[in-house]
Amino acid sequence: MNSEDNVINTSLQADKLSSSESAPVIEIWGKRPLSGHISVSGAKNSALVVLAGTILCSQDCRIRNIPNLVDIGRMADVLTALGVKVTRNGDTLDVDASSISHSRAPYEIVSKLRASFFVIGPLLARLGVARVPLPGGCAIGARPVALHIRGLQALGAEVHMDHGIVHAYVPGTRGRLKGGKIYLDYPSVGATETLMMAATLAEGETVIENAAQEPEVLDLANFCRAMGARIRGAGTNTITIVGVPSLHSTDYGIIPDRIEAGTFMLAGAITKSPISLSPIIPEHLTPIIAKLAEAGTRVEMEGHSRARIVPGEKLLPIEIETRPHPGFPTDMQAQFMALTTLANGDSVITETVFENRLQHVAEFNRMGANIRLTGNSAVIRGVPQLSGAPVTGTDLRAAAALLVAGLAAEGKTTLHGLHHLDRGYENIEAKLSAVGARLRRVPSSSLVADSANQPVVV
Ligand code: UD1
User: Are 358 and 376 in contact (CB under 8 A)?
Assistant: First the structure.
């Protein structure tokens, strides 16, 4: 099997497993102190959009620090379906988009990976035409794409809906988008990225106002700049792009994953364990580190990219409201909820970014937490102890949060819904086992037979 097959198989296997009765689970035996060091992988959300961005370039690109995840396999599948050659070698992907043979992304993959809709921007910019199925909603909300579409129209594209497919094209014979002024009603990460990519090859200047400021947007801008794009202001709320006729080959390394790093920080905080992690970019973790400090856990830097968790005596109650960057990230909301279940007092967590991202409340309560939902806020009354239970991750970060809770719970937690977890965490069992956690992945069909409920050292 060649390395390209490898990438494709990752996502196909995951699809089979998620639908099969023997879908695996992770068993976690909690209350084990952790110690040692965890390596942080490349950022999933950067890697996904940078891979989409390779479509802009008619020469080879090498992308390093790509995490080995199901979602990355799916994005590679989309690129392959468009005629792009993708070769994986460890955490490096070589992408050759010199001859794109199709302008239509396959529904079977786009429906499973929302971020693959983002290829609409670079496809349209490169070919003058793109056909991408509407991604549909997902567990955390409806997730519309109106901002992407309105922005593409502001750059001169005609956009029609045709049997569930978004068909975008540049009218006229030249096939090139035209720079324009775009104001986003909401600083959508995906819309900012789609439009920034589209504008790199447009004629003239594009200004995106109320742009998303997430570190992954800046990473994408840096990647595009490395290919010769003219972009300034990425990482602020106004991004200016001056279109160029073509982009050139580059070799680019993805930033570390701030959400994976944050999840491991929470694993340290909830088990009161002084683990360290690297590499991180501390500025990307400012809201996470600040909220941890309020909750009684300090994060100390050892050098510029290594952090150590310094647990306090007590876990303190906190208030959190999720916001676009540099506000508190919605992708860390569930993990912080795990921490607050054990705090000395009442915490309040309000989700404002997605309309349906508190489904994990019921799962935490199954573990003995005391959480009450009022609208989009959760009031969490800290309890002295969580007890292990069978739980299901309802989305990617919920699954990670339940795993974190399981590390601190009395007895065994059995985590279902790993098809979510595997979308975003590379080797999570191995990374946590290496710092002393007791957990193992088993087929769920073996659970009935395994009635001994004994801890296993992995
Ligand atoms: C990205 C991240 C995801 C993160 C989210 C918010 C990737 C691959 N995913 O998702 O992990 O949780 O940012 O930080 O990078 N919206 C609209 N209309 C649109 C687009 C978005 O109303 O056209 C709304 C969404 O429904 C949602 C909010 O804007 O309520 C934020 O979504 P957005 O920033 O677009 O998230 P994604 O880019 O999908």
Answer: yes
